[in-house]
Write a structure and sequence with these properties.
globular; 44% helix; Dna Topoisomerase Vi A Subunit, Chain: A, domain 2; 4 domains; five-stranded antiparallel beta sheet; DNA primase DNAg catalytic core, N-terminal domain; alpha+beta; DNA Primase, Chain A
């Protein structure tokens, strides 16, 4: 379907589309049912066709989960897009020319599009070098040792940056591409006080980082030699913001529109790759940063339950515990899966297979319960005080929104401590109620660090000062 005139309204756009055509091409065939059509609903675990589609009216309705709306609504829900992104998706699918007003709402502004295009070009260059370059062997050997083949390399668009200072910068000059844009998005670096540039990624396997729509936002590079750090990322830019990026989210399209029951959060790029290789597509990794509220918001669009599979060392525990606040704030259930020592998801699945990994995931632990066990171990090993334990626990459990789970957590926490459930609940009540009181427009809780909470606890409930021992 092709139109020359620019579309100026939503009605104009929808008049040039076919809901039936879009659903059949992106989801499943439709079966004639009276004057309408029927199909399985992609928005719940549908066993028999319960979604009715009226192509004439451009509307759909599920009689089971009550999902419904027009093509824009369907695209938003089916692909987890916002309104502007959905309009762009529809325009692209039906080859509709959008008026500038609509284009301005899109994430893909002209500047952003130029950045995406440049990243796509550079990704192709890195991919070609991994396939044909003189220095490719060491990178290929590493990927093979991790269990990956050419299909996996192609699926994730992996590339290789050779150990040269001017591989990329020379290419840009040859193609007459403005070098400043490449510098702005971190592909090349500039020498101090000199108008000279050199490649940022050198002697590294390149992992293109994509958004949900498959646009390349930037790159991660894994070193092959001894150079530190092991991983480096593109610098922050209008399209590359680590606090918002989840590696692997572009592969959610393999879920074919159905929302997963839970999402795995892992630490490494190769973890995501290996899980995808074995058909586990509901997995993402953060970009070497703690999980943020922006990450949690993105995850919430797909599922309200996550399983965190981080390393079983102190760094892994600390990283996962930092995620309690942003995830629980959005009402997301959080579980942890700790694999046996010396295994990450990549190596575990490679050795034991998908079935054993899924079985292990079924026995994952609620993160707040794991945190309680962790605190009690710290109490015994490091001789921290009851006050420190209570304050640390309060700073986490206050974000648990489910009252039943919160109650269970408090019971577990106090079960072997010389402090009562009522005392902990009183502290929790004072802590959470203080959040509704703003001082100069700033919630009090935002200015409290753990030491503040300890002091606050001692002042308000002095009787717990004497309780410093575990119950027998």
């Amino acid at each position: 379907m092709s139109f020359n005139e620019e579309s100026t309204s939503l009605e104009d756009i929808l008049s040039q589309t076919s809901l039936k055509e879009y659903i059949e091409k992106n989801w499943s065939p439709l079966k004639k049912s009276g004057s309408n059509f029927s199909t399985l609903c992609p928005f719940h675990d549908d066993k028999s066709p319960s979604m009715s589609v009226s192509d004439e009216k451009g509307l759909y309705h599920c009689f089971t989960c009550k999902a419904g709306g027009n093509l824009i609504t369907f695209v938003k829900e089916f692909k987890n897009l916002n309104s502007a992104e959905a309009i762009q998706e529809i325009a692209s699918f039906f080859n509709i020319k959008l008026q500038k007003t609509f284009k301005n709402y899109s994430e893909d502004s002209n500047l952003n599009k130029q950045m995406y295009d440049l990243n796509n070009l550079i990704a192709s260059l890195f991919m070609k070098y991994l396939a044909e370059g003189k220095e490719r062997k060491v990178a290929i050997d590493y990927l093979i040792s991790r269990g990956f083949d050419n299909k996996d390399i192609s699926n994730f668009s992996l590339g290789f940056a050779p150990n040269k200072w001017d591989f990329l910068s020379s290419f840009l000059k040859k193609k007459k591409i403005p070098i400043n844009m490449a510098h702005n998005i971190g592909l090349i670096s500039k020498k101090d006080d000199k108008d000279e540039f050199f490649d940022f990624f050198r002697n590294r396997i390149i992992f293109p980082i994509k958004n949900r729509q498959g646009n390349i936002l930037g790159f991660a590079g894994r070193n092959i030699g001894d150079e530190k750090p092991k991983y480096i990322n593109s610098k922050e830019s209008p399209i590359f913001m680590k606090r918002k990026i989840l590696y692997g989210i572009d592969k959610f399209t393999n879920l074919k529109g159905s929302k997963p029951k839970y999402i795995f959060i892992v630490e490494g790029y190769t973890d995501v790759m290996m899980m995808n290789k074995f058909g586990i597509y509901n997995v993402v990794a953060t970009m070497g940063t703690s999980l943020t509220i922006e990450h949690a918001n993105e995850i919430k669009k797909f599922s309200s339950k996550v399983i965190m599979c981080y390393d079983s060392d102190k760094a892994g525990f600390d990283s996962s515990f930092k995620s309690i606040e942003p995830l629980y704030q959005l009402g997301i259930e959080v579980y942890t899966l700790r694999l046996q020592s010396n295994y990450d998801p990549c190596s575990f699945i490679k050795e034991f297979g998908k079935a054993k990994f899924i079985d292990a995931a079924k026995n994952s632990t609620l993160i707040i319960e794991e945190y309680i066990d962790y605190l009690k171990e710290e109490y015994l090993e490091k001789n921290i005080s009851i006050n420190e334990m209570v304050s640390s626990f309060i700073l986490k459990v206050k974000f648990v929104q489910d009252p039943i789970q919160r109650d269970i957590s408090i019971n577990k926490f106090t079960s072997s401590l010389s402090i009562t459930k009522v005392e902990v609940e009183n502290i929790l009540m004072k802590e959470t109620s203080s959040e509704s009181i703003s001082i100069g427009g700033r919630p009090e809780s935002l200015s409290l660090n753990p030491e503040d909470v300890i002091l606050k606890t001692l002042i308000e409930i002095p009787e717990i000062r004497k309780k410093q021992t575990l119950k027998d």
